[in-house]
Amino acid sequence: MSAGPHERRRRRTAWAVRWFTALLSPALILAPAAAQERAPVPGEVDTHVTQSTIRTTICEPGYTAKVRPPRKATDAVKRRLINGHSGSPQDYELDHLIPLGLGGHPTSANNLWLQNWWARASARTAVSGGAVKRKGVCS
Question: Positive or negative CA dihedral for 73, 75, 78, 79?
Fold first, then answer.
């Protein structure tokens, strides 16, 4: 018997929490550059966000609005990344692989990816999931 939709959602959420927890662990954030080169991880963390600064960075109300790059900058990245994709730039949203509210780098191309607007349901889930994870980090 296969798992129902609630069980599948619970498993996906549990997997995402484990993945982000591992990603944001102090060992990974503070790992030497050489170690990170040997084991590349998708996304890029903001080096200003560390275990000792989370209260004044990601846990500070309004932090993501303060560090979010201006639309003009993200539109330039979006135009560069759109090459080779079907559709037009309006079909895609530029998104952060590691959410800003969890310490993702706001402007690094390694942390930006194109998400098709048709996948909006998954985008909403990722955003709400990111908020839940941020509460866990900041509480």
Answer: negative
